[in-house]
Amino acid sequence: MFGIGPGEFIGLALIAIIFVGPERLPKFSSDAAKFLKKVKNLANTATAELRENLGPGFEDLQPSDLNPKTFIKKQLAGALDEDKPKTSAQPKIDPDLL
């Protein structure tokens, strides 16, 4: 979750114990979990509203598709695919060579 590895998670837990204190840590953890749940719910709601407001044809739109870097990569990849010559399944044989 959030790209945090086990070592980093343990480090954050130790820092939380030091700054918050062991007696207030359960309440702090509960509040942090509620906050993260609200943020996740807000992000999901915003994504759903964006898809709804864009209308038909955008049902499969992902938030990462709106990233300019990703958009340019997809457009360039599509343009490069169009430039490639289409090869047929059967090779053409020149009768003069036989």
From TrEMBL:
Domain of life of the organism encoding this protein: Bacteria
The protein, known as: Sec-independent protein translocase protein TatB
A Pfam family that the UniProt record links to this protein: TatA_B_E
InterPro entries: TatA/B/E (IPR003369)
Positions of region (Disordered): 77-98
Subcellular location: Membrane
Membrane topology type: Single-pass membrane protein
Native source organism of the sequence: Candidatus Planktophila limnetica
Alphabetized UniProt keyword annotations: Membrane, Protein transport, Translocation, Transmembrane, Transmembrane helix, Transport
